[in-house]
Amino acid sequence: MEFNLSAYLKEQKARVDEALERFLPQTSGLEARVVEAARYSLFAGGKRIRPILCIAAHDALKGNSPALYPVACALEMIHTYSLIHDDLPAMDNDDFRRGKPTNHKVFGEGVAILAGDLLLTYAFELIAGAATNGADASLLLEVIGLIAQAAGFRGMIGGQVIDLECENRSDVDLATIEYMHTKKTGALLTASVVSGALLGGAGDKDLERFRRYGHHFGLAFQITDDLLDLIGNFDQMGKSPGSDLQKNKKTYPALMGIEESRRAAEEHVNRAVEAIEVFGADAEPLRAIALYLLERRG
Amino acid sequence: MEFNLSAYLKEQKARVDEALERFLPQTSGLEARVVEAARYSLFAGGKRIRPILCIAAHDALKGNSPALYPVACALEMIHTYSLIHDDLPAMDNDDFRRGKPTNHKVFGEGVAILAGDLLLTYAFELIAGAATNGADASLLLEVIGLIAQAAGFRGMIGGQVIDLECENRSDVDLATIEYMHTKKTGALLTASVVSGALLGGAGDKDLERFRRYGHHFGLAFQITDDLLDLIGNFDQMGKSPGSDLQKNKKTYPALMGIEESRRAAEEHVNRAVEAIEVFGADAEPLRAIALYLLERRG
């Protein structure tokens, strides 16, 4: 029977959404506004790629960790916080995200900054709390260290500051762009796969396989994202096509052309798929998700 | 021999500064700018109250935890991140902090937001990493959970959003102010004491004593801070006196008068000191730090 990716993604997304709702329900105290703001962005239609990568890697190893959903949801919270902060006027200054007004447009800049802070902080509380469900404490610390490093200045935050500094400069080369993306989007995507593998019980050799998958997946993801921005439309993207170009963002198509970008995306997808070949049918979701990048429409 | 608080604070601050320098040295990569910004605020003359409370509680129990300095420094990083974000134009809009231009005045708003994010993220990486020094993994997870909760929407972030919402409203009563401060500054101060006690090996009964100390210390700290703002001067505070009043901040002296505020501060200090009486001479630093609040000049 052929693997039905669309049904798989739908089912996993529903499970992640249900867990997110359970982990971060609306509160009623005086601080309700910042929880409302965090939930606004958390439930604004994200595809839950990072949690699903985490779950798929865990399942590829036939794992059974009680910390799986806390960690998967923490990854989505960290991703969401980064979107809220990146959209701020002082950063990318975006008014729309996934077709909806960005957080600061709805709640104001002050609350939007705090909503991002909330999600980042709560992500670590959530993972630490998984110890009470009987998850292995040393493994949880390893996962916290891995995710914090990927989200921190050697990862996502480092990538974002490089992105900020590259804007309005004309001397940015492909190596710098690739370095920036490896950090800005690649690090957390890789950490999603690797943390799932860790929870699934992976040893060093397998961890390296999932790390390689994550690395190539991240680059293919970014290249196809750039292509979508260039040739997609508002319905598919929830933002205006060509908005990267308008903001003088350095993209793959701008630097190496559309055809060469497509070839590069295909190459990275192939290498991602190769990296996890050894897991056979158990890794079918990871394989299908990577191949799907080449047909993305949103 | 009488306890020399000034010498104690000086020595502990030097140790914390040395550890912070070791944990977060300047880097040289493309992301160097955000590390520079984080270090600018981290080394802008903080008194290291939170790390010192953590160390003093740990030492009161004759603890010997290899995680003490990572946790103490993580507390200072979280405190510093909160100052950077609170000073932003969208929040308190402060140009000076401890007599120096605030982070966003030097590095711009975008980098300042990211520098705060960096410190928050790195704090958790630092604690998780202490496992490699042989610290107990379950205890570290408990500390991460405790600190994340104190820094999160039920603590510091919740307090800050309540503060934001109370500005320019005239119907704010003393109970709301106290609730706000318990969260905004009290939660992390209490978590500093309690995490030190946890690392020092405290059982439930002792933890409750340190929690009570932290609670009353936090309130006394806030009241004396409000009094200083009202009657201090720029040299002592590093900011203009009366700036809370100008921003229509609700303070203790504004709500209950200067004399009544002084009495309330004294009462909270006494209760903090009482809470840790059982630890005798080993808790002398904690006792002296609390009593010192009543003579604060900065």
TrEMBL record, chains A, B:
UniProt KW Transferase keyword: yes
MF (Gene Ontology): metal ion binding; prenyltransferase activity
Matches recorded under PROSITE patterns: POLYPRENYL_SYNTHASE_1, POLYPRENYL_SYNTHASE_2
Cofactor: Mg(2+)
UniProt entry keywords in alphabetical sequence: Isoprene biosynthesis, Magnesium, Metal-binding, Transferase
Domain of life of the organism encoding this protein: Bacteria
InterPro entries noted in UniProt: Isoprenoid_synthase_dom_sf, Polyprenyl_synt, Polyprenyl_synt_CS, Prenyl_diphosphate_synthase
Bilayer-spanning residue ranges: none
Pfam families reported in the protein's UniProt record: polyprenyl_synt
Transferase as UniProt keyword: yes
GO biological process: terpenoid biosynthetic process
GO cellular component, one term: cytoplasm
Similarity comment: Belongs to the FPP/GGPP synthase family.
Protein name in the entry: Farnesyl-diphosphate synthase
Biological source species: Thermodesulforhabdus norvegica
